[in-house]
Write a structure and sequence with these properties.
Blueprint (H helix, E strand, L loop, with lengths): L2 H47 L9 H5 L3 H27 L8 H30 L6 H7 L6 H27 L4 H15 L5 H18 L2 H24 L3 H25 L1 H9 L5 H9 L1 H19 L1
């Protein structure tokens, strides 16, 4: 097969991944807007029927409405199952490679929390830079972090999102890229995972943990990636935030620094002591530059990147 034909074939394979994520993103936005509109209509009807209609709605309650996201997950899973069938789920998404051990899981968890400390430094640096131009990311930070305000948001962010995102990114995306190399599949799925978050606060962090979750999915299973992802969203993001909110500010801040600082230190120790194994893993497989070139030049990835970059920019000015 000639070089041009090979590149064309690669771009066709990779662009299907990008367009699948674009379609999912469009469905998610449509269903989310619909759910919020129905919630606003319900509120307005309720106040009107009670005889105290003032024409207003509770914007905080509408913002916390996650039923559109939940419905998107249901629709997406049904479509994926109808498209790929049970054999694909069993042999690709639910495939098991190696047994997880407590020591390995603790190491992975430490790296996960260490990545959060890196992200905190990034957020501080980003805020400092944007402040020079009269901009801030604090409003976005409040909307994407902390405990869930509604039952639907808790159900989505803490429980259902980790499952759906692992099936989508470490299942479908990573497994589609896997025939072109393990390292390429981990990198490509992490890039798209980070990009899909669509804001400057979460995208770098999602890319970092996407690399870690991709490694877990390839070497162990997608189910273990789900477990780590759910622990992050449920325990570290939601339950820990609820705990610290009930403590005096200084005590809550100290607890966060102690917990995340300890795991960040543990992650540094792990990276240093395991540096030879990490280097050997990186060198165990060559990442084909042609795959990288075709991946970043295919229409699906380009369009998805443009959409998410526009979204990131809009969040800075809205």
């Amino acid at each position: 097969m000639e070089e041009k034909q090979i590149n064309k074939w690669l771009r066709r394979r990779f662009t299907a991944v990008g367009w699948t994520l674009i379609v999912y993103y469009i469905i998610m936005n449509i269903l989310t807007v619909l759910a919020m509109a129905l919630d606003a209509a319900r509120q307005m009807l309720g106040t009107f029927m009670s005889g105290r209609y003032d024409g207003g709605v509770d914007l905080d309650a509408i913002a916390g409405n996650a039923w559109g996201y939940i419905l998107t997950i249901a629709v997406g899973l049904v479509i994926l199952y109808a498209w790929k069938g049970w054999d694909y789920w069993k042999t690709e998404i639910l495939a098991k490679e190696r047994n997880m051990t407590p020591a390995v899981f603790f190491s992975l968890l430490s790296l996960f929390m260490g990545a959060q400390m890196v992200n905190s430094l990034w957020i501080g640096l980003l805020e400092l830079i944007l402040n020079q131009f009269g901009l801030s990311v604090m409003a976005t930070l409040e909307s994407v972090s902390g405990a869930s305000d509604t039952f639907s948001m808790f159900l989505y962010s803490a429980l259902l999102a980790p499952i759906a995102e692992e099936i989508l990114f470490r299942g479908y995306v990573l497994r589609t890229l896997r025939p072109f190399g393990k390292r390429f599949a981990i990198f490509g799925s992490a890039f798209l995972f980070g990009l899909f978050h669509g804001n400057l606060l979460q995208t770098p962090y999602a890319f970092l943990v996407g690399l870690l979750l991709g490694y877990v999915a390839v070497e162990y299973s997608v189910l273990w990636a789900m477990a780590l992802h759910m622990f992050n969203n449920l325990v570290l993001a939601d339950l820990l935030s609820r705990l610290t909110e009930r403590l005096p500010e200084m005590v809550g801040t100290s607890l966060n620094l102690l917990l995340f600082g300890s795991f960040a230190l543990a992650s540094l120790v792990i990276l240093i002591t395991k540096r030879n194994q990490i280097r050997a893993y990186r060198q165990s497989e060559w990442m084909d530059r042609r795959c990288l070139k075709c991946f970043f030049s295919c229409s699906g990835v380009i369009v998805l990147t443009v959409i998410m970059v526009i979204n990131m920019a809009l969040l800075l000015f809205l």
